[in-house]
Amino acid sequence: MGDQVPSVVQAYIEKTPKSRALYQRAREIFPSGVTHDSRYLQPYPLSVARAEGSHKWDVDGNEYIDYFGGHGALLLGHNYPAVVEAVRDQLSKGTHYGASHELELEWAEQIIQMVPCADKVRFTSSGTEASQLVLRLARAYTGRSKILRFATHFHGWHDQVAFAAVPGDGAPPAGITQDVVQNTVLCEPNNAEQIEQTLASRDDIAAIILEPTGASFGRVPTYGDFLRRLRTLTREHRVLLIFDEVVTGFRVAPGGAQAHYNVIPDIALFAKVLSGGFPGGAIAGRADIMDMMTFRNDPTWNATHRIPHQGTFNANPISACAGLTTLKLIADGTVIQKANRSGEQLRAAMNEAAKKHGLNWLVYGEFSGFHILPLSEDQSFSLDDIAAGKVPYTVFKGSVPASLIHQIRCGLIAEGVDIVSWPGGVISAVHTETDLEKTAEAFGKLLSVVKKNREKI
Ligand code: PLP
Fold first, then answer.
1. Which of 124, 288, 290, 451 could staple 129 via S-S, CB 3.0–4.6 A?
2. d(Cα 302, Cα 282) in Å, to the nearest integer?
3. HEC string for 259-316
4. Ligand 1, closest atom to CA 211?
5. Is the pTM here over 0.85, yes or no?
6. How many Cα neighbours within 13 Å face the side chain of 4?
7. Is 383 in contact with 352 (CB distance < 8 Å)?
8. Which residues contact 372 (CB under 8 A, 6 or more apart)?
9. What stretches of 174-280 adopt beta strand conformation (E)?
10. Is 217 in the pocket of ligand 1 (CB under 6 A)?
11. For the chain, what is the radius of gyration of the CA atoms?
């Protein structure tokens, strides 16, 4: 690539002077000028001023088709009218009662109605909090200390899950203590034999946690057979099976990935779509596990066995209202099917564009997600290979050069499309045919630049 700024990055810079100016202020205040690592972009991130439906507008007034989708939270797109109306109404009734309220009850009842594993529910303020709570519950319930999780799978940013997000990156970041690392058993995604051997050879594993459609909404796909195998093995060894449905819950199917695959975990965690575009998370699962949080008429048990749980904004009325309204809207599956169909259509159109430009890039994924895999000239995997589980997981994450991902993101922003740096994105139920066509066109334009410059990249 040399020192020269690639033309797609140059196009991004020319289009976004106000984002650049805001970044000059932001970098003095926020580490790296951002408030979430995923929004980091060189030479500066995009600053957005407003959003509506499937679109958003940056501070320079440029319009984008949005596939960031509020980090996956916005299945109904930005400002869905029924959700906005319900929240406006709730605002006038109060935002925080510091007390129990009927909305939280209705929200939880709706979850129990939709999610197969949900006997009981507890709300948190984020997916990360739900992840931390569910792992502590699993250790307390089983009396075992270790959590088994998979390289590349993401479960938030608390200590036990904040390492090995990409292949080979087993080293924990600074600040995570050795005992946390030692209490985490890291396995390869989709390697059933490894799980079988691990569970047969030790009795200290409390739970297995995974993203049920694979790391980052299927960036590293996982398959139904693997989930079924995990279910059998965890039952055999009395290990809890935890599905992290923070993305997949209420997006893959009304009852989440567990309903789609008919593999019912012992407990699951949710966030994002759960609270309709507002902050919130939840755990939901078997009553006997959830009851580890129940006060008993036994002070000793309460002091030594019960799992305490606080959180100022748990089930706050605004999130409860937005979440309940959203879940009711999607409960019959129509909205999800619409987003899933758009996903299929977009992936097909983007693959068509790649074929047209003679590039062996693949756009894969399932449900309402898409993942761009820019294979190098000497790689010859196909979509069928991915579906058949024949592609090593290390190809999906960590193998695409950062400079190329950067050019894909900047190139698409320059063409009016904002994606996530997997690279890929999430599709809402309000993306239109025109959005999908324009996205495939923008992708085609990016590909023609890439093709021209392939030797430079
Ligand atoms: N689990 C998964 C699968 C996620 O994708 C995320 C966030 O992207 C989390 C957990 C953490 O959720 P939150 O960002 O709400 O803390």
1. 124
2. 22
3. HHHCCCCCEEEEEHHHHCCCCCEEEEECHHHHHHHCCCCCHHHHHHCCCCCCCCCCCC
4. 3
5. yes
6. 8
7. no
8. 350, 361, 362, 363, 408, 419, 422, 423, 424
9. 184-187, 205-210, 214, 220-221, 240-244, 267-271
10. no
11. 22
Residue of the nearest CA to atom 14 in ligand 1? 127
Mean pLDDT in the chain?
Answer: 95
75 touches 250 (CB < 8 A): yes
What residue owns the CA closest to ligand 1's atom 10?
A: 155
Terminal alpha carbon distance of the chain = 5
- pLDDT at residue number 4: 67
**Alpha-carbon span 295 to 308, nearest angstrom:** 9
Cβ distance 251 to 343 under 8 Å?
A: no
Q: How far apart are CA 252 and CA 32, in angstroms?
A: 34
Per-residue pLDDT tens over the stretch 341-369: 999 999 999 999 999 999 999 999 999 99
Q: Is the CB of 393 under 6 A from ligand 1?
A: no
Per-residue pLDDT tens for 87-116?
999 999 999 999 999 999 999 999 999 999
Give the type of residue at 247. Answer: V
* Tokens 């699993």 found at: 138
Any atom of ligand 1 within 6 Å of the Cβ of 71: yes
Q: Is 156 in the pocket of ligand 1 (CB under 6 A)?
A: yes
pLDDT score at 452:
83
212 CB within 6 A, ligand 1: no
CA gap 189, 385 in Å, rounded: 16
278 touches ligand 1 (CB under 6 Å): no
Q: Is the distance from the beta carbon of residue 127 to the nearest atom of ligand 1 less than 6 Å?
A: yes
β-strands 240-244, 267-271: how paired?
A: parallel
Flag whether pLDDT at 457 surpasses 50. no
What's the burial of 5, exposed, middle or buried (CB within 10 Å: 0-12/13-18/19+)? middle
Nearest residue to 318 via CA among 22, 53, 107: 107
Instruction: Give me 251's structure tokens.
Output: 């997006």
CA of 454 to the centre of ligand 1 (A): 35
Residue nearest to atom 9 of ligand 1 (CA): 156
Burial class (CB in 10 A: 0-12, 13-18, 19+), 237: middle
**Is the bond into 265 cis (omega within 30 degrees of 0)?**
no
Residue 246 Cα to ligand 1 midpoint, Å, equals: 6
Residue 435 Cα to chain centre, angstroms: 22
Question: Rounded to an integer, what is the distance from CA 16 to the centroid of its chain?
Answer: 27
